[in-house]
Design brief:
Elements lengths: L1 H6 L1 H19 L16 H31 L7 H16 L12 H14 L18 H6 L13 H14 L3 H30 L3 H8 L3 H9 L4 H16 L3 H12 L7 H12 L6 H27 L21 H17 L4 H28 L5 H14 L9 H11 L6 H12 L11 H21 L26
Helix pairs in contact: 2-3, 2-4, 3-9, 4-9, 5-7, 7-8, 7-14, 8-9, 8-11, 8-18, 9-18, 11-12, 11-13, 11-18, 12-13, 12-14, 13-14, 13-16, 13-17, 15-16, 16-17, 17-18, 18-19, 19-20
């Protein structure tokens, strides 16, 4: 902690981000071909040294984030309360995110798929029937297609029409040239970061959670910085739009909120879970008509609005409705973080050893299906508790998304952000789930190399991070304490941003 006390969390985190960006020049997810010669492979020695530098930078960023949270919780800085504290967090966010903006793709090669899919739309290919490999050597996105990871070269797009239009626009504007296309999509990711920060502030102010602390866990989180800004995953845009839609619903504009969530759905489909909780908000809004009318409106309204917007954007985009059938394509790739996939595969091989005629893939598929069914059940219970006033709808949404991730057949480290950001926005007092999310965040950042690969030692580093974080929480309490004391008794649940309890 000497470095932290000497330079301060903000400067230490910025130095960490800069080290990640510099290390990424040789150890990042570099393209197979890059005509400008800026992001090119180096020798083995340089690549290893750059990876070590990036890992050291990541560790500095994690330590700075942890210490910054402790200062917010303990009130050790003069600006932790009120607008001064929020401004301090946002300035820190700028310091930590800025070094990553001009870096090559980090921790994932997905951005090359985005560019290639944009080129496919431009050239008239069906992105829901073919993968980037369909692009020929002379195609606009040929360099990006050549850089797509092996598992995804022939995989159809699982994304909705709005994101494909965005990728198409960036590819068209940059001519598919790798460096400007990547920067264009990274600026989109920065925009998603800004939108998410705005929504988190509004929700935190609504629920008295403490804006500074909410921003710290939600957007200052290293997991978000390296995977949304560094890796440019479209999950960031989905989260920002989804929470913006919830903010609109809480302000009484549930139709607009449902429409915005529909846009988030046409980025990535998990945002659809928010419609259920917007329905809960509508039903619980006692100031908007008789209970029966509110029940009908809450049950049917958000879904109908979202379906209309999704259908209209799909029709206008010209990409077709194939995205509705490709939502499961990612599950064909085994990811070690998927508990249901791991358990299913283990059970399948165990059954084969016992009987000899069992297909492990079939057992895995069954386990994945049961996991999704369990996730649906958990989401239904959370929605019911929110409807009965036993849980805030935004918290219910966050927990529902976390349950969906935990039981999903396809799990990547950044999926944890789906629910973490929502939970962070409304956590009040010593929320027991916050330390869990903190520990998972600091461990998941180590699971992936800067190149985007998932080495075995990544899980060892993640386990060490878990041990260190748990030890820090037990010895020092960590940043889990809220900016203010927890309420002594439950307060009436406010369902609108006017602050009027309903």
């Amino acid at each position: 902690m000497w470095v932290l006390s000497k330079a301060g969390p903000r400067r230490t985190g910025a130095a960490g981000s800069l080290a990640i960006a510099v290390g990424g020049l040789a150890a990042g997810s570099l393209p197979a071909r890059e005509p400008w010669g800026l992001w090119v492979p180096y020798g083995h020695g340089v690549t290893v040294a750059a990876a070590v530098l990036a890992y050291l930078g990541l560790t500095l960023l994690v330590l700075a984030w942890w210490e910054y949270g402790r200062e917010l919780a303990a009130g050790e800085t003069a600006e932790v309360a009120g607008q001064g504290g929020v401004r301090d967090v946002l300035v820190t966010l700028g310091w930590w995110a800025a070094p990553l903006v001009l870096a090559p793709p980090l921790y994932s090669a997905d951005v090359y798929s985005y560019i290639a899919q944009g080129a496919m739309v431009l050239e008239g290919h069906d992105v829901y029937a073919h993968g980037p490999s369909v692009l020929g050597p002379g195609s606009l996105g040929a360099d990006a297609a050549a850089s797509v990871g092996g598992n995804w070269t022939d995989t159809p797009a699982p994304y909705g029409p709005v994101f494909l239009l965005l990728a198409k626009g960036v590819t068209w504007a940059t001519g598919g040239t790798i460096v400007p296309a990547v920067i264009g999509l990274r600026l989109t990711a920065v925009g998603a970061l800004v939108l998410t920060a705005w929504a988190v502030r509004r929700l935190a102010a609504q629920y008295g959670a403490g804006e500074s602390r909410a921003l710290w866990l939600a957007v200052l989180n290293p997991l978000l910085l390296i995977h949304v800004v560094g890796g440019m995953h479209n999950d960031g845009l989905m989260i920002g739009l989804m929470l913006a839609g919830v903010v609109c619903a809480l302000r009484g504009r549930w139709v607009l909120g449902s429409a915005v969530v529909a846009l988030a759905m046409t980025i990535k489909s998990p945002a659809a879970v928010a419609l259920l909780f917007i329905g809960v908000i509508v039903v619980r809004d006692a100031g908007r008509g008789p209970a029966v009318l509110r029940a009908v409106k809450g049950a049917l309204g958000p879904g109908l609005v979202a379906a209309t917007i999704a259908a209209a954007t799909t029709w206008l985009s010209g990409t077709g409705f194939g995205w509705l059938r490709t939502q499961s394509v990612a599950a064909t790739v085994h990811t070690p973080l998927s508990l249901t996939s791991d358990l299913g595969l283990a059970a399948g091989y165990a059954a084969r050893l016992l009987s000899g005629d069992v297909d492990p893939a079939a057992v895995k598929s069954l386990t994945q299906t049961l996991g999704l069914a369990a996730a649906v059940a958990v989401i239904a219970v959370l929605a019911y508790r929110s409807l009965r006033g036993r849980m805030r709808p935004v918290r219910g949404l966050g927990l529902a998304l976390l349950a969906l991730v935990a039981l999903s057949p396809m799990v990547q480290p950044w999926y944890l952000l789906w629910g973490t950001v929502a939970v962070a926005a409304i956590s009040v007092g010593n929320d027991r789930i916050v330390p869990i999310l903190m520990v998972l965040s600091v461990s998941f950042v180590y699971e992936t190399q800067p190149s985007g690969h998932t080495p075995a030692y990544g899980f060892a580093l993640a386990a060490l991070a878990v041990a260190a974080a748990v030890t820090a929480l037990r010895r020092h309490g960590g940043p889990a304490a809220a900016e203010g004391p927890a309420p002594s008794r439950p307060r009436p649940e406010p369902d609108s941003l006017s602050g009027v309890p309903r």
